[in-house]
Design goal:
The complex is a heterodimer of chains A (about 950) and B (about 500).
Chain A lengths: L1 H19 L4 E9 L10 E4 L5 E3 L5 E6 L2 E8 L5 E9 L4 E9 L8 E5 L7 H10 L4 E5 H7 L4 H5 L5 E4 L3 E4 L7 E5 L2 E2 L20 E7 L13 E7 L7 E10 L10 E2 L28 H4 L6 H12 L7 E2 L5 E14 L2 E27 L10 E26 L3 E24 L6 E25 L5 E26 L12 E24 L2 E26 L28 E4 L8 E17 L5 E19 L6 E24 L2 E12 L10 E3 L6 E3 L5 E3 L4 E4 L6 E14 L3 E13 L2 E5 L6 E6 L3 E13 L10 E15 L2 H9 L10 E2 L7 E11 L4 E10 L13 E4 L4 E10 L5 E8 L6 E6 L6 E6 L4 E9 L1
Parallel strand pairs in A: 1-7, 6-8, 12-15, 33-39
Antiparallel strand pairs in A: 1-4, 2-3, 2-5, 5-6, 9-14, 10-11, 12-13, 14-15, 16-19, 16-50, 17-18, 19-20, 20-21, 20-49, 21-22, 22-23, 23-24, 24-25, 25-26, 26-27, 26-28, 28-29, 29-30, 30-31, 31-36, 32-33, 34-35, 36-37, 37-40, 38-39, 40-41, 41-42, 41-43, 43-44, 44-46, 45-48, 46-47, 47-50, 48-49
Chain B lengths: L1 H19 L10 E4 L4 E6 L2 E11 L3 E8 L2 E7 L5 E9 L7 E11 L4 E13 L2 E4 L7 E3 L4 E4 L2 E4 L4 E4 L4 E4 L9 E4 L4 E5 L6 E5 L25 E4 L13 E2 L11 E2 L9 E9 L4 E3 L2 E2 L3 E4 L6 E8 L6 E4 L5 E7 L6 E4 L5 E8 L6 E6 L9 E9 L5 E6 L4 E9 L15 E4 L1 H8 L3 E9 L6 H4 L8 E3 L19 H4 L7
Parallel strand pairs in B: 2-8, 9-11, 10-13, 11-14, 12-15, 13-16, 14-17, 15-18, 16-21, 17-21, 18-24, 21-25, 24-26, 25-27, 26-28, 27-29, 28-30, 29-31, 30-32, 31-33, 32-34, 33-35, 35-36
Antiparallel strand pairs in B: 1-3, 3-6, 4-5, 4-7, 7-8, 19-20, 22-23
Classes of the chains: A mainly beta (about 950), B mainly beta (about 500).
């Protein structure tokens, strides 16, 4: 925190001193090659009618100081058409930005391109240039678009990208392929996720005001890590702000069904909860105790030394088990960002600082979590309930994010230093009516839940880029350590059986859980690029190496409370009242039982190293054909330290994965016309099991009652004679084929059609244990394939009527067909529980693969009036989520038809004021997952209604 | 962060070392053994170790010989490895008592060099308390007069027999959830626990100060539960499973432990003999619907003999059957935390002569479930006396329950119609399948007797038409019920006077 304050002061002063010297105005710009989309080095830029000029650096950047006035700028470069830009206004002390100038290769019929300064306002078109010319398949969204659609965080923004959807408001799905096959990187380097169960990181932690652009690469090139299949999402933060900015923003969100609600549920909180972390209020009562006493140790002597320690620990548990009803406020957020670039002699220093704070609450009424199963009589088709819980819960989410970036540019080098710190705290309290109709236990109960989860991420990135004078060689390096932590201190669950208000093993004993995960991550990368001539055209040879080290420590400590002969009134907060607790005089009172001593199977350390080498060449073998051909090699080792429950298997830093793989890749792009490309790509990629999957962990989720079983355990049947799963979890190797035709039209219009096909060798899916259907384990299942078709369109409606030229129709849709060969055990299980008349196929859909994704919208952009508005629609087809086993059926997501509206407007002469309104879920849809079975009515697995959220934001630039 | 940087540093150093390393000429090298302590002290019957001997021999290891008092007890041959480890443990026998036992570890390399390490084990008196920390994989006997501590979830594995002599006390160490201690007789394993009327075998917790020869706990009340797991017997007899799978994981044992599987196709399977045992203060809970019962019988076959069993203060059910064909004679359950007797998955045996003493946390005296798969079989419960509690119910017959329930006497339950009782105190048939079975004579009741609270009708207590098989009697005037004499003397309930009024 101290460092932040110091940097804040330092930059405050820098801003002030910058203001004092301003007398002339500045033009800053960037020039790109229209054909390659890359910055042009050495372009002569002059101001017509003056002696003033500049030459672009390796980033294509130039800067010219001028006295106030209106000018015409001319840019010229050998073998390119010159560009004249008219009507550039320079004001005293102001910076005029021309960040999107493009030169076209020399043509005889057109010597000079003249355009007006007005026409280059939008950078969305610049991104389109990158996309048009990049050899790999990519899509993206830039900071200009964030402003346009008013999205506050990366998760909201990235939904606009073709074939991308967001699950649970946080996680990216590309082309409907699940989280396992998607990867998120920050500034080109891996950073660990905040959720241990996920491979990708949650996107909603990145506020859009620190992001320059988000690029989604759907095809692999060998300079990227090979562990993605659907796509890799690269979030690029800002480096050199074009002008001095100091922006203060305020935002609010109001949800009529959630806010100012007197029934909102919350639990006791610490004084720092509002900053996204707990100050020790939820500390484990056994903190600092090495030898935790158990009840059995002290029952005989409650007042002895151990007995007193036991009683002290018992009394240190926060007695609150049920939340309280208390009115909530609406969502609000504040943000401040500032940045500038300063000339230091011939060199340039850029800085960026952003601080974001968000505080949001959600209240879900009639939330449902159920379990249904097939009846045992196979002539009965309708599913029968095993467990049902319906109730409400309140969520308070606090997000504090800080970004600090420094960039320094000399003639031939650029250095960047980025520090990101994110702190997120989420508090939940819920009350449910629970009904169990499962075999062996029929009861109703009141269920109370309290949870708190705090996550932090600290990432430091240092990078450099160096160019040789003649531009032939380029060296890039990056070093980036990250520390991330997740703590779930004091998860509380309690059930009272109805109507007797007692607590027993039948309804489950009250539980308190402390979970903690710490992950350290170090990434180093070195890339070398050589620009040369091949077949008479510019070509590039790239090669380099990368090193990734990751280490994770994970531990769960859980306690159960036996209630002895205590009777209760049904008030959850009275269970741990003093008079109920075990003591000298109340030996059969409420007591704790630690479940994690002496052996804790839910504690492990794991680490991995991944050393990669690659080489690839970008060249044009024939006219209009560009190719990238490359090969990557990765040596991957994963090690595990942990034990099974009875400690009969002990792994001490044992190698659990040891792979050496080669990943060839071919990307071809054929410009069949000036504005049309055909692309083809083939690549081999990999999906590796996660730390948690490659473990002996056995993690019981007290809320769903499901147990996660690590992939290292085996399962046998028929008296051990038949091995259902051998405990040898392996990585999945994937072959990817892509074909795309695209047509670019003026003013950022686009039309493209793609087809893709992927084969999966032994994909990993969550499979239920045959002998215990409540336990799930990651296993390699039979081989799978995914075939898909993608369509993207962005079209101005000017063709209907010229008046509609500012109205754009956007559509992108992905249609996929996936199939997986059932494993022997799954096939048998499905046959055993088949309904009468049901045919069991040996194939099924791939879990997590959406059959279709659709994004569409109508957007209005008027740059003159500064009004932007749009209506957007997003839906993802019903997707197989959990694979059924035994009498449990498959679960599917129910399509959520999201219709969102956004309006943004700028005000004032210099457009200093921006205001926006954004309405989410206009159709008031609920998010649901269902159990689905042959000819049976779907039954709800989970159901949540997010309501309709109205967000507004206001920002002011100084 | 430190570790990451250390990792980096290590990486760089390792790379440097790799290039620096070269072959060196070494003449004759010696053998070394480390890791064996020079001395240790145990009591007779206890185990030393396991300790790990680390042996290195640059010229290649040939053999490791372990001698006890001069005579070889173990020879391990190697194939020229330059280093090896060997795990050693020794369980002392009664003859070792009050002696020093000398162990010699002799490692010899390929050219005849050897190294000897000596370990002197001082063995004290014959231990009367023996901690068991590992699975029982070969025949073992627990001896009269001794107390055995379960240090973990101890499994008698396939092929092994655990003989427990009369009067033995078995105590489970503290542990809950995955750490719950329990004694599991896995499929193919056998228990031979034949206590006697004067010397019952007692299973309890380490918190219990009971010693061999005692019946009642000197320090624990009879309602303290959940201190350890329980006794789990698993066999290969048929059971009716969901989805008609051939075997299943028993409740309370995580699916990753395959010793928890039960079920099969041998109705006459033999898991051994259990006679005169008392199981107390157990029932550690793993999760909801995942508890350890006092005595869990999963797929136990009909050759198994189970007679004279007492279960006291178990946090979950007293005795629960999951399928199987075993018959049980003379059972007493007192203060069970959930149900006293619980049957599932088409148990096909008979429970003859039982006394159920409900406690404040007892849910149902009888919880009877039907088959879970297509395999149907039924069981019989006869000659029982059930003392109720205001919080408890007589019985719940559900989920297609089948079988015969006869000559059972109930008393001491609430009036189900009393608002205070909130519906407790009845005997009901739940679900259409159970009602249908009752109608079709698959679920039968004969000669049920009850002493009702004043002013309560038979049909209020015996619901769904079962009242026609029940008759009301005055307290103690019952003509059916258990023969309590078989429980005299060896059960804590009898010693505590709980049977006096029956």
């Amino acid at each position: 925190m101290k460092t932040l304050i110091i940097s804040w002061l330092f930059f405050g002063m820098a801003v002030l001193s910058g203001a004092a010297v301003a007398q002339t105005g500045t033009i800053r710009g960037t020039i790109y090659d229209e054909a390659s989309g890359e910055p042009l080095f050495g372009v002569a830029v002059s101001i017509v009618g003056t002696q003033t000029g500049a030459v672009t650096d390796f980033d294509g950047d130039f800067e010219i100081q001028l006295s106030p006035g209106t000018y015409t700028l001319s840019a010229s470069f050998i073998s390119y058409n010159s560009l004249n830009l008219e009507g550039i206004t320079v004001a005293s002390g102001e910076v005029t930005i021309l960040d999107n100038l493009r030169l076209t290769e020399y043509t005889s019929d057109l010597e000079t391109v003249t355009i007006s300064a007005e026409a280059i306002r939008t950078t969305e078109a610049a991104l389109m240039t990158v996309k048009r010319n990049a050899a790999q398949l990519m899509d993206g969204i830039s900071s200009a678009a964030f402003r346009q659609i008013g999205d506050g965080d990366a998760a909201a923004a990235i939904k606009r990208v073709t074939g991308v959807s967001i699950e649970g408001g946080k996680y990216v799905y590309i082309r409907g392929l699940g989280d396992r096959y998607t990867k998120t990187v920050l500034n080109g380097v891996d950073i660990p996720g905040l959720d241990p169960d996920r491979n990708s990181i949650q996107m909603d932690i990145f506020p859009t005001n620190i992001i320059d652009n988000i690029i989604v690469s759907k095809s692999f090139t060998s300079n990227l890590s090979a562990d993605f299949t659907g796509g890799v999402v690269d979030i690029e933060t800002k480096d050199f702000p074009e002008e001095k900015t100091l922006r203060i923003s305020l935002s609010g969100g109001y949800n009529p069904s959630m806010h100012f609600n007197p029934d909102f549920l919350r639990a006791g909180s610490s004084s720092t909860d509002f900053l996204g972390f707990d100050n020790g209020y939820r500390d484990i009562p056994t903190k600092g105790v090495n030898d935790i006493p158990q009840f059995v140790d002290v029952i005989g002597n409650p007042s002895g030394e151990r007995g007193q320690l036991y009683q002290r620990i018992l009394r240190d548990f926060n007695p609150e088990f049920g939340g309280m009803r208390d009115q909530n406020a609406m969502n609000f957020g504040v943000g401040i960002s500032l940045g500038n670039q300063l000339a230091l002699g011939d060199n340039t220093l850029g800085y960026n600082f952003a601080l974001t704070y968000k505080n949001a609450s959600e209240y879900f009424q009639d939330a449902e979590y159920n379990l249904y199963a097939k009846p045992r009589d196979n002539s009965e088709l309708e599913l029968q309930p095993l467990e049902r819980s319906m109730g409400s819960f309140g969520v308070n989410n606090v997000m504090l994010g800080g970004l600090f970036g420094l960039a320094y540019k000399t003639d031939l080098s650029k250095f960047r230093l980025n520090l990101i710190r994110l702190q997120n705290g989420e508090s939940k309290a819920g009350i449910f009516d629970f009904e169990n109709t499962n075999l062996g236990a029929v009861f109703e109960a009141d269920q109370y839940n309290i949870e708190y989860s705090q996550r932090s991420l600290t990432n430091l990135m240092l990078s450099g880029a160096h160019y040789l004078k003649d531009g032939d060689w380029e060296v890039n390096w990056k070093v980036s350590p990250t520390l991330s932590t997740i703590d779930d201190p004091d998860v509380r669950v309690l059930r009272f059986r109805k109507p007797t208000q007692n607590i027993s093993t039948e309804v489950g004993l009250p539980q308190r859980i402390w979970r903690s995960l710490e992950e350290q991550n170090l990434v180093g990368k070195l890339d070398l690029t050589n620009n040369h001539q091949l077949f008479g055209k510019m070509a590039k040879l790239k090669f380099g190496s990368s090193y990734v080290y990751k280490e994770r420590d994970f531990v769960i400590q859980d306690f159960q409370f036996s209630t002895g002969n205590t009777s209760f009134t049904g008030d959850p907060n009275q269970v741990l009242r003093e008079e109920n607790l075990f003591s000298e005089t109340n030996r059969n009172g409420v007591r704790y039982n630690p479940l994690f001593i002496p052996n804790n199977p839910n504690s492990f350390q794991a680490n991995l190293t991944n050393l990669g080498w690659y080489v690839h060449s970008e060249f044009s073998p024939v006219e209009k054909l560009k190719a990238i051909v490359g090969l990557r090699a990765e040596k991957f080792d994963q090690r595990y330290t942990g034990t099974n429950q009875t400690q009969t298997i002990v792994f001490d830093n044992e190698k659990v994965l040891d792979d050496m793989d080669f990943f060839p890749t071919i990307n071809l792009i054929n410009s069949i016309r000036e504005d049309q490309n055909i692309r083809f790509s083939f690549s081999r990629t990999i999906a590796r099991p996660s730390f948690k999957e490659m473990s002996f962990a056995e993690i019981l989720d007290p809320i769903t009652g499901r147990t996660f079983v690590g992939g290292l355990f085996e399962e046998v049947t028929n008296g051990g004679t038949e091995v259902l799963w051998d405990g040898q979890l392996e990585a999945t190797r994937i072959n990817n084929f892509d074909l795309r035709w695209e047509k670019f039209l003026p003013a950022g219009q686009l039309f493209s059609v793609s087809a893709f096909y992927k084969t999966f060798d032994k994909p990993i899916e969550m499979v239920q244990f045959l002998s215990d259907p409540g336990a799930f384990q990651p296993r390699n299942v039979g081989n799978g394939t995914v075939a898909g078709l993608e369509l993207e369109l962005r079209k101005s409606l000017a063709f209907l009527a010229p008046k509609l030229e500012n109205l754009f129709f956007t559509f992108n849709g992905t249609l996929t067909e996936s199939s997986i060969q059932l494993s022997e055990s799954e096939l048998r299980s499905r046959q055993l529980t088949a309904r009468e008349g049901q045919e069991i196929s040996a194939k099924r859909d791939m879990a997590g693969q959406a059959p279709y994704i659709l994004n569409s919208g109508i957007a209005y952009n008027n740059f003159v009036s500064g009004l932007e508005a749009g209506l957007f629609y997003n839906v993802q087809g019903s997707t197989l989520n959990y694979v059924g086993f035994g009498n449990r059926t498959d679960t599917y997501t129910v399509p959520f038809h999201a219709v969102n509206l956004s309006i943004n407007k700028t005000f004032g002469l210099e457009e200093r004021i921006k205001a926006g309104l954004n309405v989410q879920n206009l159709l008031n849809q609920s998010r649901q997952e269902v159990f689905r079975s042959y000819q049976a009515e779907d039954q709800i697995f989970s159901s949540l209604n997010p309501g309709t959220l109205i967000n507004f934001n206001f920002s002011y630039s100084l | 962060m430190k570790r990451v940087f250390k990792g980096m540093l290590f990486f760089v150093l390792a790379a440097g070392l790799l290039s620096a390393c070269g072959e060196e000429e070494v003449p004759n090298s010696f053998v070394s053994i480390s890791g064996i302590p020079a001395t240790a002290v145990i009591e007779a019957g206890e185990t030393v170790g396991p300790v790990t001997a680390n042996i290195s021999a640059a010229d290649g290891l040939a053999t490791l010989v372990i001698r006890k008092d001069g005579s070889t007890i173990e020879t391990i041959n190697f194939n020229g490895e330059t280093s090896a480890t060997h795990e050693f443990s020794y369980t002392s026998v009664d003859e070792d008592a009050n002696k020093n036992v000398v162990f010699e570890f002799v490692a010899t390399d390929s050219n005849g060099d050897s190294q000897t390490v000596t370990h002197v084990l001082t063995v004290g008196e014959i231990a009367t308390v023996i901690r068991i920390a590992e699975n029982i994989t070969s025949d073992q006997t627990w001896e009269t007069g001794k107390t055995y501590i379960l240090g973990d979830r101890i499994v008698v594995t396939d092929g092994a027999t655990l003989k427990i002599e009369p009067g033995v006390v078995v105590k489970g160490e503290a542990g809950s959830g995955p750490n719950a201690t329990a004694l599991i007789i896995a499929r193919g394993g056998k228990i031979d626990a034949q206590g006697t009327e004067t010397e019952p075998i007692i299973f309890t917790s380490v918190a219990d100060e009971i010693e061999p020869g005692m019946i009642a706990s000197p320090n624990l009340d009879a309602d303290l539960d959940g201190f350890w797991g329980g006794l789990i017997v698993l066999g290969r007899a048929p059971s009716s499973f969901e989805g008609d799978v051939s075997e299943k994981q028993i409740e309370g044992i995580p699916p990753s432990d395959t010793n928890g599987l039960y079920g099969g196709d041998d109705p006459a399977d033999d898991s051994g003999i259990i006679k005169y045992i008392s199981i107390r203060h157990g029932g550690s809970n793993i999760g909801e619907g995942n508890e350890i019962n006092g005595l869990t019988l999963g797929g136990v076959g009909s050759t198994t003999i189970i007679e004279n069993v007492e279960v006291i203060a178990n946090q979950d059910d007293g005795i629960e059957w999951f399928g199987g064909t075993v018959n049980v004679k003379n059972a007493l359950v007192w203060n069970s935390g959930d149900d006293a007797l619980d049957t599932d998955q088409s148990w096909a045996g008979t429970m003859d002569n039982f006394i159920l003493l409900c406690g404040p946390t007892t849910d149902h005296a009888l919880e009877i479930d039907g088959p879970e798969g297509s395999f149907n079989a039924a069981h019989t419960l006869r000659n029982g006396t059930v003392r109720g509690h205001p919080e408890s119910e007589l019985g719940d017959f559900r989920d297609g329950a089948r079988g015969t329930f006869e000559n059972i006497y109930f008393f001491g339950f609430s009036d189900p119609a009393d608002p205070e009782a909130e519906g407790r105190g009845d005997l009901s048939l739940s679900g259409d399948a159970s009602l249908e079975n009752f109608e079709n004579g698959i679920l039968n009741f004969n000669n049920l007797e009850v002493t009702l609270p004043a002013g309560v009708s038979l049909s209020t207590v015996f619901r769904n038409g079962t009242d026609v098989h029940a008759s009301e009697v005055a307290l103690g005037e019952n003509t059916v019920g258990a023969d309590k004499s078989v429980f005299a003397g060896w059960t804590w309930a009898a010693v505590a006077g709980e049977l006096d009024d029956l």
